[in-house]
Amino acid sequence: MTLFGLLSVWFLMFGFVQSKLSLEDGLLSKADVKNLFQRLDALEESLEVEKQRNNELENTVNILKSNLENTKQTFEDKYAALEKQFLKRLDEERKSCKRVAEKTQKKKTYQNDWQRKLTTDSSVLSKHQRNHKFQREQKRLLVQPSQVPPMTVAFYAQMSTSIPEPEATGNHVMVFDIVRTNDGNGYHPSTGVFIVPESGIYVFSWSFRNADNHYHSTQLMVNSNEGGEIQVRTANASSITGTGIAVLHVNKGDDVYVKIATVGHLGPIFSDNFGRSSFTGWKLN
Protein backbone atom coordinates (compact mmCIF):
# COMPACT_ATOMS: atom_id res chain seq x y z
CA MET A 1 0.00 0.00 0.00
CA THR A 2 1.36 3.43 -0.91
CA LEU A 3 1.82 6.36 1.50
CA PHE A 4 -0.99 8.15 -0.30
CA GLY A 5 -3.30 5.18 0.32
CA LEU A 6 -2.49 5.08 4.05
CA LEU A 7 -3.13 8.81 4.41
CA SER A 8 -6.41 8.44 2.52
CA VAL A 9 -7.57 5.66 4.88
CA TRP A 10 -6.61 7.73 7.93
CA PHE A 11 -8.42 10.83 6.72
CA LEU A 12 -11.47 8.78 5.72
CA MET A 13 -11.68 7.00 9.09
CA PHE A 14 -11.13 10.28 10.89
CA GLY A 15 -13.90 11.83 8.87
CA PHE A 16 -16.12 8.82 9.49
CA VAL A 17 -15.69 9.09 13.26
CA GLN A 18 -16.27 12.83 13.18
CA SER A 19 -19.32 12.27 11.00
CA LYS A 20 -20.69 9.73 13.44
CA LEU A 21 -20.18 12.10 16.34
CA SER A 22 -21.72 14.91 14.34
CA LEU A 23 -24.67 12.70 13.44
CA GLU A 24 -25.22 11.93 17.09
CA ASP A 25 -25.13 15.64 17.75
CA GLY A 26 -27.54 16.15 14.90
CA LEU A 27 -24.99 17.90 12.63
CA LEU A 28 -24.88 15.34 9.70
CA SER A 29 -27.71 14.06 7.59
CA LYS A 30 -28.19 10.47 6.44
CA ALA A 31 -27.09 11.53 2.95
CA ASP A 32 -23.75 12.65 4.31
CA VAL A 33 -23.25 9.32 6.06
CA LYS A 34 -24.14 7.43 2.87
CA ASN A 35 -21.62 9.51 0.93
CA LEU A 36 -18.91 8.62 3.44
CA PHE A 37 -19.62 4.91 3.06
CA GLN A 38 -19.46 5.23 -0.75
CA ARG A 39 -16.05 6.89 -0.46
CA LEU A 40 -14.90 4.04 1.79
CA ASP A 41 -16.00 1.47 -0.82
CA ALA A 42 -14.18 3.38 -3.57
CA LEU A 43 -11.02 3.43 -1.49
CA GLU A 44 -11.23 -0.35 -0.94
CA GLU A 45 -11.53 -0.88 -4.71
CA SER A 46 -8.48 1.36 -5.28
CA LEU A 47 -6.48 -0.66 -2.76
CA GLU A 48 -7.46 -3.88 -4.53
CA VAL A 49 -6.25 -2.47 -7.87
CA GLU A 50 -2.91 -1.55 -6.27
CA LYS A 51 -2.60 -5.09 -4.94
CA GLN A 52 -3.21 -6.56 -8.41
CA ARG A 53 -0.59 -4.23 -9.93
CA ASN A 54 1.95 -5.32 -7.33
CA ASN A 55 1.27 -8.98 -8.17
CA GLU A 56 1.71 -8.30 -11.89
CA LEU A 57 5.03 -6.51 -11.27
CA GLU A 58 6.25 -9.43 -9.18
CA ASN A 59 5.33 -11.89 -11.97
CA THR A 60 7.18 -9.72 -14.51
CA VAL A 61 10.32 -9.71 -12.36
CA ASN A 62 10.19 -13.51 -12.07
CA ILE A 63 9.85 -13.89 -15.85
CA LEU A 64 12.81 -11.56 -16.51
CA LYS A 65 14.90 -13.47 -13.99
CA SER A 66 14.08 -16.78 -15.71
CA ASN A 67 14.94 -15.35 -19.16
CA LEU A 68 18.27 -14.06 -17.84
CA GLU A 69 19.17 -17.52 -16.49
CA ASN A 70 18.28 -19.14 -19.83
CA THR A 71 20.39 -16.61 -21.76
CA LYS A 72 23.34 -17.18 -19.44
CA GLN A 73 23.12 -20.97 -19.88
CA THR A 74 22.94 -20.64 -23.68
CA PHE A 75 26.05 -18.44 -23.72
CA GLU A 76 27.97 -20.87 -21.49
CA ASP A 77 27.03 -23.82 -23.73
CA LYS A 78 28.21 -22.02 -26.89
CA TYR A 79 31.45 -20.95 -25.22
CA ALA A 80 32.17 -24.53 -24.11
CA ALA A 81 31.52 -25.88 -27.62
CA LEU A 82 33.83 -23.32 -29.25
CA GLU A 83 36.56 -24.00 -26.69
CA LYS A 84 36.32 -27.75 -27.33
CA GLN A 85 36.54 -27.23 -31.10
CA PHE A 86 39.56 -24.93 -30.73
CA LEU A 87 41.45 -27.39 -28.51
CA LYS A 88 40.74 -30.24 -30.93
CA ARG A 89 42.04 -28.22 -33.89
CA LEU A 90 45.12 -27.16 -31.91
CA ASP A 91 45.93 -30.79 -31.09
CA GLU A 92 45.58 -31.81 -34.75
CA GLU A 93 47.95 -29.03 -35.86
CA ARG A 94 50.50 -30.05 -33.21
CA LYS A 95 50.45 -33.69 -34.35
CA SER A 96 50.78 -32.64 -38.00
CA CYS A 97 53.83 -30.46 -37.25
CA LYS A 98 55.43 -33.29 -35.31
CA ARG A 99 55.01 -35.72 -38.23
CA VAL A 100 56.55 -33.24 -40.69
CA ALA A 101 59.51 -32.62 -38.36
CA GLU A 102 60.17 -36.35 -37.93
CA LYS A 103 60.04 -36.95 -41.68
CA THR A 104 62.45 -34.06 -42.36
CA GLN A 105 64.90 -35.30 -39.72
CA LYS A 106 64.92 -38.83 -41.17
CA LYS A 107 65.65 -37.53 -44.66
CA LYS A 108 68.46 -35.30 -43.37
CA THR A 109 70.04 -38.19 -41.43
CA TYR A 110 69.91 -40.44 -44.50
CA GLN A 111 71.67 -37.85 -46.67
CA ASN A 112 74.36 -37.21 -44.05
CA ASP A 113 75.11 -40.94 -43.74
CA TRP A 114 75.59 -41.29 -47.49
CA GLN A 115 77.78 -38.20 -47.61
CA ARG A 116 80.10 -39.60 -44.94
CA LYS A 117 80.28 -42.94 -46.76
CA LEU A 118 81.20 -41.25 -50.02
CA THR A 119 83.95 -39.23 -48.30
CA THR A 120 85.49 -42.36 -46.75
CA ASP A 121 85.42 -44.38 -49.96
CA SER A 122 86.97 -41.59 -52.02
CA SER A 123 90.19 -41.70 -49.97
CA VAL A 124 91.05 -45.21 -51.24
CA LEU A 125 89.71 -45.11 -54.76
CA SER A 126 91.42 -43.82 -57.86
CA LYS A 127 90.20 -40.69 -59.54
CA HIS A 128 88.42 -42.72 -62.19
CA GLN A 129 86.87 -44.97 -59.63
CA ARG A 130 85.84 -42.06 -57.46
CA ASN A 131 84.16 -40.35 -60.39
CA HIS A 132 82.40 -43.53 -61.39
CA LYS A 133 81.26 -44.28 -57.85
CA PHE A 134 80.21 -40.66 -57.32
CA GLN A 135 78.02 -40.78 -60.41
CA ARG A 136 76.40 -43.99 -59.29
CA GLU A 137 75.78 -42.69 -55.80
CA GLN A 138 74.38 -39.44 -57.13
CA LYS A 139 71.85 -41.36 -59.19
CA ARG A 140 70.82 -43.27 -56.11
CA LEU A 141 70.43 -40.06 -54.12
CA LEU A 142 68.34 -38.33 -56.79
CA VAL A 143 65.08 -39.10 -55.07
CA GLN A 144 62.16 -36.97 -56.10
CA PRO A 145 61.22 -34.61 -53.26
CA SER A 146 57.90 -35.43 -51.66
CA GLN A 147 55.03 -33.25 -52.74
CA VAL A 148 53.66 -31.04 -49.96
CA PRO A 149 49.89 -31.31 -50.17
CA PRO A 150 48.17 -27.98 -50.78
CA MET A 151 46.47 -26.36 -47.81
CA THR A 152 42.78 -27.24 -47.53
CA VAL A 153 40.65 -24.14 -47.02
CA ALA A 154 36.87 -24.47 -46.69
CA PHE A 155 34.20 -23.06 -44.40
CA TYR A 156 30.45 -23.26 -43.98
CA ALA A 157 28.38 -21.34 -41.39
CA GLN A 158 24.71 -20.63 -40.70
CA MET A 159 22.82 -17.87 -38.94
CA SER A 160 21.34 -19.02 -35.62
CA THR A 161 18.58 -16.38 -35.41
CA SER A 162 16.72 -14.01 -37.70
CA ILE A 163 17.77 -10.37 -38.12
CA PRO A 164 14.85 -8.19 -36.87
CA GLU A 165 13.62 -5.37 -39.08
CA PRO A 166 15.15 -2.53 -36.97
CA GLU A 167 18.61 -4.10 -37.45
CA ALA A 168 18.18 -5.20 -41.08
CA THR A 169 19.39 -1.89 -42.49
CA GLY A 170 21.96 -0.80 -45.04
CA ASN A 171 25.60 -1.85 -44.48
CA HIS A 172 24.63 -4.26 -41.67
CA VAL A 173 27.15 -7.14 -41.69
CA MET A 174 25.41 -10.51 -41.51
CA VAL A 175 26.95 -12.71 -38.82
CA PHE A 176 26.69 -16.46 -39.44
CA ASP A 177 27.52 -17.76 -35.96
CA ILE A 178 26.84 -21.52 -36.32
CA VAL A 179 30.05 -23.00 -37.76
CA ARG A 180 29.71 -26.35 -39.54
CA THR A 181 33.11 -26.45 -41.30
CA ASN A 182 36.21 -24.27 -40.85
CA ASP A 183 39.25 -26.00 -42.40
CA GLY A 184 42.11 -23.53 -42.42
CA ASN A 185 40.54 -21.53 -39.54
CA GLY A 186 39.87 -18.55 -41.78
CA TYR A 187 36.24 -17.94 -40.78
CA HIS A 188 35.45 -15.94 -37.63
CA PRO A 189 31.89 -16.57 -36.34
CA SER A 190 31.92 -13.67 -33.89
CA THR A 191 32.19 -11.11 -36.72
CA GLY A 192 30.97 -13.04 -39.78
CA VAL A 193 34.25 -12.27 -41.61
CA PHE A 194 36.38 -14.81 -43.53
CA ILE A 195 40.05 -13.75 -43.43
CA VAL A 196 41.80 -15.39 -46.41
CA PRO A 197 44.59 -17.66 -45.08
CA GLU A 198 46.16 -18.35 -48.50
CA SER A 199 46.00 -16.50 -51.83
CA GLY A 200 44.23 -18.19 -54.74
CA ILE A 201 40.95 -18.79 -56.56
CA TYR A 202 37.97 -19.23 -54.21
CA VAL A 203 34.30 -20.09 -54.64
CA PHE A 204 31.93 -18.18 -52.33
CA SER A 205 28.19 -18.70 -51.89
CA TRP A 206 25.65 -17.07 -49.58
CA SER A 207 21.89 -17.35 -49.09
CA PHE A 208 19.17 -15.57 -47.10
CA ARG A 209 15.39 -15.92 -46.67
CA ASN A 210 12.59 -13.33 -47.01
CA ALA A 211 8.84 -13.63 -46.49
CA ASP A 212 5.51 -11.76 -46.63
CA ASN A 213 5.99 -8.86 -49.07
CA HIS A 214 9.51 -8.11 -47.83
CA TYR A 215 12.62 -7.63 -49.96
CA HIS A 216 16.34 -7.26 -49.46
CA SER A 217 19.54 -6.90 -51.47
CA THR A 218 22.73 -8.43 -50.04
CA GLN A 219 26.32 -8.04 -51.19
CA LEU A 220 29.41 -10.24 -51.03
CA MET A 221 32.28 -7.93 -50.07
CA VAL A 222 36.06 -8.33 -50.43
CA ASN A 223 37.49 -5.68 -48.14
CA SER A 224 35.52 -2.60 -49.30
CA ASN A 225 34.85 -3.88 -52.85
CA GLU A 226 31.71 -5.66 -54.00
CA GLY A 227 32.22 -9.22 -55.25
CA GLY A 228 28.58 -10.08 -55.91
CA GLU A 229 25.00 -8.98 -55.16
CA ILE A 230 21.54 -10.60 -55.16
CA GLN A 231 18.01 -9.41 -54.33
CA VAL A 232 15.05 -11.43 -53.04
CA ARG A 233 11.50 -10.03 -53.20
CA THR A 234 8.54 -12.04 -51.86
CA ALA A 235 4.79 -11.89 -52.32
CA ASN A 236 2.18 -12.01 -49.56
CA ALA A 237 2.06 -15.25 -47.53
CA SER A 238 5.18 -16.61 -49.22
CA SER A 239 8.76 -17.39 -48.26
CA ILE A 240 11.76 -17.45 -50.63
CA THR A 241 15.45 -18.21 -50.12
CA GLY A 242 17.87 -16.50 -52.51
CA THR A 243 21.40 -17.77 -53.18
CA GLY A 244 24.37 -15.97 -54.69
CA ILE A 245 27.65 -17.47 -55.91
CA ALA A 246 30.95 -15.91 -56.95
CA VAL A 247 34.35 -17.22 -58.11
CA LEU A 248 37.06 -14.73 -57.14
CA HIS A 249 40.80 -14.43 -56.82
CA VAL A 250 41.58 -13.17 -53.31
CA ASN A 251 44.83 -12.55 -51.51
CA LYS A 252 46.06 -13.66 -48.13
CA GLY A 253 44.70 -11.34 -45.43
CA ASP A 254 41.68 -10.11 -47.43
CA ASP A 255 38.37 -9.79 -45.52
CA VAL A 256 35.40 -11.50 -47.19
CA TYR A 257 31.91 -11.02 -45.71
CA VAL A 258 28.21 -10.52 -46.55
CA LYS A 259 26.32 -7.31 -45.79
CA ILE A 260 22.90 -5.78 -46.50
CA ALA A 261 23.03 -3.31 -49.40
CA THR A 262 22.60 0.39 -48.69
CA VAL A 263 19.37 0.48 -50.73
CA GLY A 264 16.62 -1.98 -51.50
CA HIS A 265 15.66 -3.49 -48.15
CA LEU A 266 12.40 -3.92 -46.20
CA GLY A 267 11.51 -6.20 -43.29
CA PRO A 268 13.50 -8.79 -41.33
CA ILE A 269 15.85 -11.45 -42.71
CA PHE A 270 14.76 -14.88 -41.56
CA SER A 271 16.86 -17.77 -40.29
CA ASP A 272 15.03 -20.47 -38.34
CA ASN A 273 13.88 -24.10 -38.50
CA PHE A 274 12.00 -23.40 -41.74
CA GLY A 275 15.20 -22.35 -43.51
CA ARG A 276 18.55 -20.89 -42.40
CA SER A 277 20.57 -18.14 -44.03
CA SER A 278 24.14 -19.36 -44.68
CA PHE A 279 27.63 -18.39 -45.92
CA THR A 280 30.21 -20.77 -47.41
CA GLY A 281 33.46 -20.73 -49.36
CA TRP A 282 36.36 -22.96 -50.42
CA LYS A 283 39.69 -22.70 -52.23
CA LEU A 284 40.19 -24.30 -55.64
CA ASN A 285 43.52 -26.21 -55.48
From TrEMBL:
Keyword list, A-Z: Coiled coil, Secreted, Signal
Domain C1q: 148-285
Gene3D superfamilies (alphabetical): 2.60.120.40
GTP-binding as UniProt keyword: no
Predominant location category: secreted
Location of the protein in the cell: Secreted
Sections of the chain in a coiled coil: 33-107
Classification via PROSITE patterns: C1Q
GO cellular component terms, A-Z: extracellular region
InterPro entries, A to Z: C1q_dom, Cerebellin_Synaptic_Org, Tumour_necrosis_fac-like_dom
A Pfam family that the UniProt record links to this protein: C1q
Signal peptide span: 1-19
PANTHER family for this protein: C1Q DOMAIN-CONTAINING PROTEIN, CEREBELLIN-RELATED
Protein name: Uncharacterized protein LOC111132509
Source organism (scientific name): Crassostrea virginica
